[in-house]
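Before the break, one more example. Copy the sequence into your notebook; we will annotate it together after we see the structure.
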Amino acid sequence: MPGIAGIISSQQTADCERLVNAMIASMRNEIVYVGGTHSVPGMGIYVGWVAHKNSFAASQVFLNEQDDIALIVAGECFADFETRTNLGKKGLRIEKNNDWIVHLYEEEGEQIL
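Here is what the structure looks like once it is written out:
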């Protein structure tokens, strides 16, 4: 079943990553699902996701150029042409189809929700 799961913990990195991998494995119960994980051990953040193949959420994790902002999302999200164009005019790199979301977050913060 598509979704996200994670742990915020000061426990051992290997233990947290093992638990997140187990959570994600339990959600990948159909061949149409893909999943992945992302860890930031210095902050004690361990997260994973499951999504439909070729969906917006399947191409995670969404990072900015400095790799200091990472977004993990569940569900589908679509940027209109104007949003992508405006972000590009500001010199923001949009290499993958879904890179725009992290740049929009940098511009608008939590208002994008």
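The chain has one domain: 3-112. The mean pLDDT is 85. Try to locate both features in your own notes.
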